[in-house]
């Protein structure tokens, strides 16, 4: 019969051998992981746009997907996954493997506004995602129906505010939906200017514009890229842009802040994100190819034609920006009282 000491020695030896095997296995796996990262990407990538086809976000996503194809050496397939204000597509990417093969074109709505509009968001904009770069900043523009403006001699934001104060129940503003950027911009104008323009939500910007053109509403805060053709044709009258700086697309148009509401600063932005935990070298590679693409003259011209200013930044800068935007919109959503 074996002694207790002998049994203990046998068990200890087996444990040591097992431990050594585990160490060897881990050591052998490490080069494989490094090799996989070095060969990335070795298959097509997926770029999710969480909105329907045809909009400015979709157009930007497709232009960039084509531009980064050559430096990455792989195709980038654009997939539209709309629904729930962009939450469905963003959530899908947040749950995808953090391997750099699935990206999303996030926006101010999905990363800075929706967290405060929805009681229960299926993703965390900060914890579940790794920012790559800001793509573009697009001003919203305050537009009014030109017939309404002509009848009431409204040629500036100050004129509109004066009309609203003299006629507290006469102003209606349309938007693409409750909690949209246009809705929040209108509620912020109400709060800062001391007027009571009534919000009329629609299921998208297109029907909201149709209502404005038909003078069912008198004013609207629309994306400058969408509104610019109608402004230039005279079908809409522009009063101001909502960002802190004027737009290069309509440089003669003042900002709302310049028009008397100091500190008024709202805009739309788009940017590229991947799931949190994506390897740092993959993040760095994506950051470089997207920055190079956004600095290319043809891409900058395409964005400018859509009323957008290309503004690539670093992953850390973009992450800090997202947190700042979240804090800003938390206050604005509280002012608006909007909830979805």
Task: Give your account of this protein's structure.
Residues 1-35 have low confidence and may be disordered. Strand 5, helix 8 (181-193) and strand 6 form a beta-alpha-beta unit. Helix content is 48%, strand content 18%. It is an alpha/beta fold and 340 residues long.
Give the gist of this structure:
The protein has 340 residues and is of the alpha/beta class. Helix content is 48%, strand content 18%.
Produce the secondary structure layout.
Layout: H1 4-38, E1 45-49, H2 56-67, H3 69-72, E2 76-80, H4 87-94, E3 102-107, H5 108-117, E4 129-144, H6 146-151, H7 157-166, E5 172-175, H8 181-193, E6 198-201, H9 205-213, E7 219-223, H10 224-232, E8 237-241, E9 267-275, H11 280-295, H12 297-305, E10 309-310, H13 315-336
Parallel strand pairs: 1-2, 1-3, 5-6, 5-7
Antiparallel strand pairs: 3-9, 4-7, 4-8, 4-9, 4-10
Question: Percentage of helical residues?
Answer: 40-55%
Molecular shape: elongated
Oligomer: single chain
Computed CA radius of gyration, to the nearest angstrom: 26 Å
Q: DSSP helix count?
A: 13
Major β-sheet profile: 10 strands, mixed
Give the overall average pLDDT. 88
Distance between the termini: 75 Å
Structural class category: alpha/beta
The parts where pLDDT drops under 50 for at least 5 residues are 1-35
Write down how many β-strands occur, each being a DSSP E stretch of 2 or more residues: 10
Beta-strand residue percentage: 15-25%
Order of helices and strands: HEHHEHEHEHHEHEHEHEEHHEH
């Amino acid at each position: 019969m074996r002694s207790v000491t002998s049994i203990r020695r046998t068990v200890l030896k087996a444990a040591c051998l097992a431990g050594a095997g585990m160490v060897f296995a881990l050591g052998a796996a490490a080069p494989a992981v490094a090799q996989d990262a070095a060969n990335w990407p070795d298959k097509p990538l997926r770029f999710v746009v969480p909105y329907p086809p045809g909009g400015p976000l979709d157009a930007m996503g497709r232009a960039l997907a084509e531009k980064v194809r050559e430096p990455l050496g792989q195709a980038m397939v654009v997939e539209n996954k709309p629904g729930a204000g962009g939450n469905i597509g963003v959530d899908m990417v947040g749950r995808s493997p953090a391997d750099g093969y699935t990206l999303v074109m996030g926006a101010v709505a999905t990363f800075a506004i929706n967290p405060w509009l929805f009681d229960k968001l299926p993703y965390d904009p900060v914890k579940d995602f790794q920012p790559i770069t800001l793509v573009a900043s697009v001003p919203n523009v305050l537009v009014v129906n030109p017939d309404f403006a002509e009848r009431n001699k409204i040629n500036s934001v100050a004129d509109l505010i004066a009309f609203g104060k003299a006629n507290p129940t006469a102003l209606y503003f349309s938007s693409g939906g409750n909690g949209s950027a246009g809705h929040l911009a209108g509620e912020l104008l109400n709060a800062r200017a001391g007027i009571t323009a009534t919000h009329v939500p629609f299921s998208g910007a297109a029907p909201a514009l149709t209502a404005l053109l038909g003078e069912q509403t008198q004013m609207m805060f629309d994306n400058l890229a969408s509104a610019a053709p109608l402004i230039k044709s005279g079908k809409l009258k522009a009063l101001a842009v909502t960002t802190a700086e004027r737009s290069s697309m309509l440089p003669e148009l003042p900002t709302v802040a310049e028009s008397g509401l100091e500190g008024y600063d709202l805009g739309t932005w788009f940017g590229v994100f991947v799931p949190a935990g994506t390897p740092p070298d993959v993040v760095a590679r994506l950051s470089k190819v997207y920055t190079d693409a956004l600095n290319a003259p043809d891409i900058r011209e395409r964005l400018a034609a859509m009323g957008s200013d290309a503004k690539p930044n670093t992953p850390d800068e973009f992450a800090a920006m997202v947190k700042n935007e979240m804090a800003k919109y938390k206050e604005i959503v509280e002012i608006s009282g909007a909830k979805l």
